[in-house]
Amino acid sequence: MADNTQGRVPYEFALERFQKLDIHEIVDRLGLPPTDEGSRILVNLMGKDYVVSCPDGRVYDSRMNEVSSYILRILILRYLVNGKGSQLTGRNITFKEISNGQIYYPNFNRRTIKKLADTFDGNEEIYTGAQNLPGFLKIKSGDFSISFDFMKNVQITFICWHGDEELPPSANILFDANIEDYFDAEDLAVVGDVAISYFLKGGQIPEDLGMYDI
Description:
The protein is α+β, with helices and mostly antiparallel strands. It folds into 2 domains: 5-82, no CATH class; 92-200. It has helices at 5-19, 23-30, 70-82, 101-120, 185-200, and strands spanning 34-35, 40-45, 48-53, 59-61, 92-94, 137-139, 144-151, 154-161, 170-176. Strands 5-9-8-7-6 form a 5-stranded antiparallel β-sheet. The chain has a 4-stranded antiparallel β-sheet with strand order 1-2-3-4. A hairpin with an 8-residue loop joins strand 8 and strand 9.
């Protein structure tokens, strides 16, 4: 479940940093819409709206139910704290090209790329809902490829290949070259997990998503 020490520690660190920032600086930097006369920020993640109250940093879904998942709260707060507001470049890079990507790649490959390959193989229909995501684009690469916005100016590309009698299914995940202006290598392993979970859950992100549920 979402309530665990491993999630709480990075969440509290991100929250402390967020609470020191001015809401007007955040929305201006990231080009996000403030709500309720500057007391809340509206953030879209995988096509779902979330509301962050200021200055306490509480995160709510579109129905104003508080989000319990540390993963979602951490990613949203880190985006607000670290995001530079840089636009998409239109150029993709691999995880290994990101700072410290070579170090974290074995975990990223095992935890995220392999999961993408296994979930896609023979189940292409689970990705049909991607066309409803912001920035959706179907790409001619591999056996199946899609690009979509994880958050504003944070774009992900999934490339998948079917397995056969000789080779297992394979996949790759690319990011727009601006990605380090928003998330670091450690964050991106979780970003990829959340995106895959969205498709596995039929286009939904469980609000109580835990550290080991994805």
